Amino acid sequence: MRDRKAEHIDLALEEGMQLHGNFFDAFFFDHLALPEIDYAAIDLSVEFLGRRLQAPLLISCMTGGTEQATRINRNLAIAAEAAGIALGVGSQRKALEDSTQADSFKVRELAPSIPLLANLGAVQLNYGFGIAECRAAVEMVEADALVFHLNPLQEALQPEGQCDFSNLVDRMAKVADALPVPVVVKEIGCGLSAEAARRLRDAGLTILDTAGLGGTSWARIEAKRSDEVELGEVFAEWGVATPRSIRQLREVGGLTIIASGGVRNGIDVAKAIALGGDVVGLAQPFLAAAAESAERTVAKAGRLTRELRIAMFCAGARTVAELQQVAIHRRHRYE
Questions:
Q1: Does domain 4-334 have CATH number 3.20.20.70?
Q2: Whole-angstrom Cα distance, residue 87 to residue 63?
Q3: Phi and psi (nearest 5°) for 251?
């Protein structure tokens, strides 16, 4: 039987595993013909997890634990360091259970100055993992934060799925109190609703990643792995669309919002920030580049940054903070 992580990489690179369409197309900026700003003076930098990013971008958590994943993570780290953006590693459960897999996640030497995020499935807190394992995940990659990912739909469809999601808010909050770094809570493609965000915020978990509906369909991936393609299609569009999730989380208030899920280019990044995001995460676009080379991954980061800068210029925003105040409109045909 093929390794689950290797299968995930291969399937995530298939076009058919992506959601069709783009929810960000429902929104647009007014073009400002007289922006009255100097393009060269636009400042994309933001503070995130105690470090300064050169652009408000995060290469979202993806992979680890295989030879191919080792190469991908190294390419991602090289690009993140070159662009001055944040990077998350894939779920480290495999490396905690088998220490020989740890090197596939260790990229700090290639990315010494950027925020680096460790990653574990929150559900593992109901299957034997506790504070010691969470601390070990952080130490393994010398991380600036620990991501707990939420993936109930994926687990329900996965042949090896673990589906006891009871009492996870309290368990995550206890870990957050014990760790020396912040905890981030993210979905993996179905989005965070206002209700989920309130529960997390009220428990003191205030850095949330929307990871909304719009990009890679893990329903399709897991259904294909288990030869239940029809079931995967039933749930392929289950979730909170990313723009809606961003807006709901902003309305909840008191949160740092990582806006991710189906973000495809720099204009989408600009829209995600104007809708309420503080930092914007992308996964699949970087995965495709990193599967080829570090050079292509560096180029991808540079292209996204340039697209964002042009969008800000034409919207009249000198800084990310100003972009968050720019009016964004909904197209009538999406009403």
A1: yes
A2: 12
A3: -70, -30
Residue 133 and residue 124 in contact, taking contact as beta carbons nearer than 8 Å: yes
Q: Residue ranges of the domains in the chain?
A: 4-334
Give the number of C-alpha atoms closer than 13 A to the C-alpha of residue 63, restricted to the C-beta side: 30
Report the alpha-carbon distance of residue 220 to residue 202 in Å, rounded: 33
Radius of gyration of the chain (CA): 19
Nearest residue to 105 via CA among 70, 144, 149, 134: 70
Cβ atoms of residues 121 and 148 within 8 Å? yes
d(CA 103, CA 317): 41
Identify which of 174, 186, 233, 248 has the alpha carbon closest to the alpha carbon of residue 58.
Answer: 186
The answer to whether the predicted template modeling score (pTM) of the entire model surpasses 0.85 is: yes
177-221, pLDDT tens digit by residue?
999 999 999 999 999 999 999 999 999 999 999 999 999 888 898
Helix (H) / strand (E) element for 138: namely: helix 131-141
- The answer to whether 77 and 48 are in contact (CB under 8 A) is no
